[in-house]
Amino acid sequence: MKISVNAIRYTLALVATLPLAASAQLAPDTLRAIDAIVTKALQDNAAPSASIAIVKDGKLAYAQAYGLASIDPARKATPQMRYKIGSNTKQFVAAAMLLLVEDGKLSLDDKIARFLPDLTRANDITVRQVLAHTAGYQDYYPLDYLAPFMAKPTTVDAILANWGKQPLSFEPGSKWEYSNTGYAIAGRIVEKVSGKSLDAFIRSRITDRLDMRSVVDTSATAWSADDPQGYEAAALGPLRPAGAEGQYWVWAAGNLAMTASDLARWDIALMHDTILKAKSRKTMATENLLSSGTGTNYGLGLFVRTTPEGRLRWDHGGEVTGFRSQNTLFPNDDTAIVVLTNGGGSTSDQVTGEIEALLFAPAADPAAPVALNKTRTLFVQLQAGTPDRSMMSEGLNAYFSAQVIEDFATSLKPLGEVQSIVELRANSRGGLTARLFRVKTAGRTIRVSTYFTPDGKLDQFIVYPR
Fold first, then answer.
1. Is the peptide bond before 366 cis (omega within 30 degrees of 0)?
2. Mapping DSSP to helix (H, G, I), strand (E, B) and coil, where does residue 57 land?
3. What is the DSSP string of 165-176?
4. Percent helix, strand and coil across the chain, each rounded to 5?
5. Domain spanning 84-359: CATH superfamily
6. DSSP single-letter state for residue 126
7. Measured by CB atoms within 10 angstroms of the end CB, which terminus of the chain is less buried, N or C?
8. pTM for the model
């Protein structure tokens, strides 16, 4: 007897399995909202299941699985199931290299010729550059589908011989370009220096120490019938079982699989310097610069970014055939979001973004609607060159001289009608309330920085390009 796919896919797989003491960190309304976010996202049919884990205040606060690990035969997903995490593996490879730095066995500034002298321009490229995607080695796996040749087994040596000895795509350090080849090189360096297989080193120095018992190296361990089935869709067609990369194709670039909870345990350890020393963690999560001084938004195995609201975010996505992952950390907030799926598309990104918005939603601010309305009103008035000075403090009145008003009107009127205004953040400073707004007009999107006095008057109104 077959179970209805639709009946199961859009319902929760099971109740959370974490102790109540852990789950209590998230309010019941928040848990219900998270469940609704994931359940709704699965209705897009890009993935049949999702497994998530939430870290709050440095603790595992919630773990849940939704939908189907297998469509036919129908099998529910559970939080205990491991999913392939793809390129989120790179965090572990970078951490392994940093542990060897701590051991005094190598330096990030060592030339790779010390370890792999036969590779292209090995005397000009550093360990740091292969981890930071600035070395110039051509990516051996840029495609988002499984090419026929990649369904067959390979070896690490073959990957290095075929892609590590080609001419560089650019001068080392001059450009950022994502390269799985760089991580194959990094993985082999870890093995040469440690005297262990990459899997054994990561297991002994990282995952076993964190009690991450679900972790497997998919290059060495067969994917079993108890694990989730990966799925892909052609265009907008139905989900169909996906194949898998041949042995060693993803290796150091994306070979690990684990539960969402175990990946969350790694996030906690990374934010709290449990495995890496603080200096190493800082190195891993510091943006690398190109030789021109341009930023890359990438550390070592992690993207390093700041949200529009000013929140520090470390993140990485992962993709292998039939699976997607998104791992996002907010170190200053001691929070992390893990989303793993057994399908393609943007489900993991969508769920992460919506949970992020939920967890960091601003507290209720009764003055916010009034402030937004005043900001809109004054903006429109300044476009016309006729501001209502009764809305302003004495200081802002002085700021808006005839020349300043003329400059505001001349530059803002051509932007056209205001289409939307959104408050991005608010905070207190010097007895005032600072509010930053994003203003979308017919012509462009800009930002307005305001300060409000306790009696509600505008004490600052400065317009910035987006």
1. no
2. coil
3. TSPPSS-TTS--
4. 35, 25, 40
5. DD-peptidase/beta-lactamase superfamily (3.40.710.10)
6. B
7. N
8. 0.77
